[in-house]
TrEMBL record:
The keyword Cytoplasm does not apply. The chain crosses the membrane at residues 26-46, 58-76, 96-118, 138-156, 195-217, 238-258, 270-288. This is Olfactory receptor. Coiled coil: none annotated. Gene3D superfamilies: Rhodopsin 7-helix transmembrane proteins (1.20.1070.10). PROSITE patterns: G_PROTEIN_RECEP_F1_1, G_PROTEIN_RECEP_F1_2. It is a multi-pass membrane protein. Its main location: membrane. It is found in: Cell membrane. GO terms for molecular function: G protein-coupled receptor activity; olfactory receptor activity.
Length: 311
């Protein structure tokens, strides 16, 4: 049995057999990546530069944009480089870094989305206590807890995964380093430790999901009791983007990790991984800005400031 130390690099899955098609994939990835950078960058700049957006909801949205930027920057640049240079290789250290960063950022984002559900719950169900329950100090502590939980989760999974001996080659059947695909390269029974860690993460994620669902049950009950149609519309407008982001992340993540083996195929695996690791960071800025007048106004003012500055 060859030890893990004998593996100096991994081979990622190529998107196409011909270099011409790989260049086409490079152009597609580049467009998606630039759109994600632009969208999340505009949200970060608008929130940072405009004082009327310095509220708990937008503070959490700023953190979400940072996590989205990190998430898409963990997977796409390497995939683009491999497509451009017609290679599949990623170093052992680079693979470990991808696993760590992806688990860290996705775990922190899911925790943050749970906190954002609490923010909407307090704003709609307990508006008189909003200032005390979501003070600047409380918001900073909750955001730190979200980032910290993702970091601890990433340390646990990365340490477990890369302590395993690998004896089934070094070909990872995915366009980035993903834990289930690395576990398939191991022939040691120690991989059960990582499976137990994954099960623990699934139960933790399920707990967050239940919290989000219960929060929205209370939110919808409170909204339906509102006498004014305008108040109902405003409440739904602030909740729908968050619900859409949560639904996108949970549905793609659940299908990626909880799908039955009978529906497994390399193509399906590739598409699902693309959906949960690339699509949410690219679409989240669009989802959040589509129905948010304050955010639109902040972005417009930012554009106007940049135009006037360059005149």
């Amino acid at each position: 049995m060859s030890n893990v130390s004998s593996v100096s690099e991994f081979l990622l899955l190529a998107f196409a057999d011909t270099h011409e098609l790989q260049l086409l994939h490079f152009a597609l990835f580049l467009g998606i990546y630039l759109a994600a950078l632009l969208g999340n960058g505009l949200i970060l700049s608008a929130i940072a530069c405009h004082h009327h957006l310095h509220t708990p909801m937008y503070f959490f949205l700023l953190n979400l944009a940072l996590l989205d930027l990190g998430c898409i920057s963990t997977t796409l640049p390497k995939a683009m480089a491999n497509a451009l240079w017609d290679t599949r290789a990623i170093s052992y250290q680079g693979c470990a870094a991808q696993v760590f960063l992806l688990v860290f950022l996705i775990g922190a984002e899911y925790s943050l989305l749970t906190i954002m559900a609490y923010d909407r719950y307090v704003a709609i169900c307990k508006p008189l206590h909003y200032g005390s329950l979501l003070s600047s100090r409380a918001c900073a502590q909750m955001a730190a807890a979200a980032w910290g939980s993702g970091f601890l989760d990433a340390v646990l999974h990365t340490a477990n995964t890369f302590s395993l001996p690998l004896c089934r080659g070094n070909a990872v059947d995915q366009f980035f380093c993903e834990i289930p695909h690395i576990l398939r390269l191991s022939c040691s029974h120690a991989y059960l430790r990582e499976i137990l860690s994954l099960v623990f993460s699934v139960f933790l994620g399920f707990g967050c999901f239940v919290f989000i669902v219960l929060s929205y049950v209370e939110i919808f009950r409170a909204v339906l009791r509102m006498p004014s149609e305008q108040s109902k519309h405003k409440a739904f407008s602030t909740c729908l983007p968050h619900l859409a982001v949560v639904s996108l992340m949970v549905s793609t993540g659940m299908f990626a990790y909880l799908k039955p083996p009978s529906v497994f195929s390399p193509t399906m695996d590739l598409v699902v991984a693309f959906l949960y690791s690339v699509v949410p960071p690219a679409l989240n800025p669009l989802i959040y800005s589509m129905r948010n007048k304050d955010l639109k106004y902040g972005v417009k003012r930012l554009f106007l400031y940049m135009l006037l500055k360059h005149q």
